[in-house]
Task: structure prediction
Amino acid sequence: MSSIFADHTLSCIIAVPFLGIAILGFVRSECWIRWVALACALLDFGLVVALFSRFDPGTADMQFVERMEWMPTFNIQYAVGVDGISILLVLLTALIAPLCVLCSWRSIQTQVRAFMMLILLVQGAMLVVFTALDLFLFFMMWEVTMIPMYFMIVLWGGPGRIAASLKFVLYSLTGSLILLAGILALHVEGGHTFDIIALSQQTYSKTTQLWMFLAFVLAFGIKLPMIPFHTWLPDAHAEAPTAGSVILAGVMLKMGGYGFLRICLPIFPDASATCAPFVLWLSVLAILYGGYMALAQNDLKKLVAYSSISHMGFVTLGIFAFNRQGIQGAILQMFNHGIVTGAMFLAVGQLYDRTHSRLISEYGGLHKQMPRFVALLCLFSVASFGLPGTCSFIGEFLVLLGASDRSFVMVILAMGGIVLAASYMLWMLQRVALGQPATRTAALLPDINAREAATLVPLAVMVLWVGVYPGFLMEMIDTSVAQLVQLTNKGLPIE
Result:
């Protein structure tokens, strides 16, 4: 068994969620359905930790590579591998999945089997997206991730779930069709191959690069989401069940940022440089817009959703800075955002399970009856605006450091976004945790139980661990980032 894992590490990691789906088809008891789903998610996390421990940060080459002919007539392969750019996102996916199972333990009471299958399906699909070395495989799993999220919203969502799920599907399908067009064009121009590494080693004319880059940047921008393609996100978050919001914010949004790093920058360096100023200013706009909109919300979920738009602005700001500090910061920001925002949605879900209300105005005084919950909420809230000593600080600092090479004005404006983040998070904390309870229900809320604590405490540990000692993550990604910067800047007049 150990030999199989050693030879086919990534395939084993990818296979576990899909095997879990098959096993769940034969389990009848709802109690056992939950336990089997949790066991599969935890097993996968353990395998990813083993992968993480065996990862060699000293090389920029793809590791644990597996290739197998799939459709040789069309030059399509099952090809997977990880490097410093993808390893943290694989770890994040495996970490979030068991927490989603746990947070749904009591809140999901209907069609439990289907819900747990959807969690495992989206986990498996995202693992393939972050490890795929074949564009066809990448696109297939990109599409698959949309299916479970749609059903999570439409079957277990809130009162506005129909409109929210429809908007999510329309935006996602539009992005997917544009992505497919870009992949087909790249396939033709790149010598009829879908191999991402081979495509990144070829040279394309500036005009060809520009048109293909626009297709990919639109598709990834919708998924991220970038302004003006962001309007689906707050509605989807507001109506999705807790697990759906955690998956969406914690991992799925990162697929867009990963696409920029894996495809746009190394394959279209000239087009990336040409369009960089436009993307950078859109990033700054997203940081400020997301902050201002979050400041105006009374709905807890929408507040966190708009904060995600702002935080993803930091990701694109770092990516298109085209330097080591910026890209390192962007990757760390994606990982840290997944931890912090995932925790925030878990916390909001725990309040919603008790009161069936997301309105900030209906809480207050929770520090008295829910001290453990409030302590964790405070930690995640200050981490959200990058307080030094928390995980988000180092990512945002590196992004701003990288962006300073492009425009100091952008840095100043982006720092304004951090001030806005502190404003809406502290305002939310003051209204929810301090003062007097706004309703009788809020005055009688019980503190979090052991199961709920088990979903938040691991993320709290990560917030503090990465905040105090970010070096171990930076070492994992540094060599791959250095190579990406070299590929992106080849032949370009960029500092």
The radius of gyration is 21 Å. Confidence is low (pLDDT under 50) at residues 491-495.
